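Much of our argument rests on the idea that a fold can be written as discrete symbols. The amino acid sequence and the backbone structure tokens for this protein are reproduced below:

___
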Amino acid sequence: MAVLTTYARVYVDDLDVALPTFEALTGAEPGLRFAYEGVELASIGAYLLVAGAPEALAPFRDVQATVIVDDLEEVFAVVAREGGRTLDGPNEVPTGRNVTVLHPGGAVIEYVQFDAAKVEAQSVR
């Protein structure tokens, strides 16, 4: 399994208000932007902004990072071998498939395996 990229999650109230600052900080424009389960998300640089009302954000706030991998099935094998557990998933999401994992030691990480056609459909470009 290869880790392709890791996004630091940033929880915000309003994506349109937050994005200009992140554009200035990163020198980049959003790569992906999409809605999912009552929140709106945008990737920009090494950040994944997750926006919504407090009640919409509540189920997502424990997740500390989003990691893009090339093989979600291998994530399951590693998690099982190392003593972690799956909290949610696998799920079909707007960019492919995901799973949220509780690692030994307490880290909560979302893993996503991109589907190229779905990613293209969510691209801002």
The chain has a mean pLDDT of 94. The two ends are 28 Å apart (CA to CA).
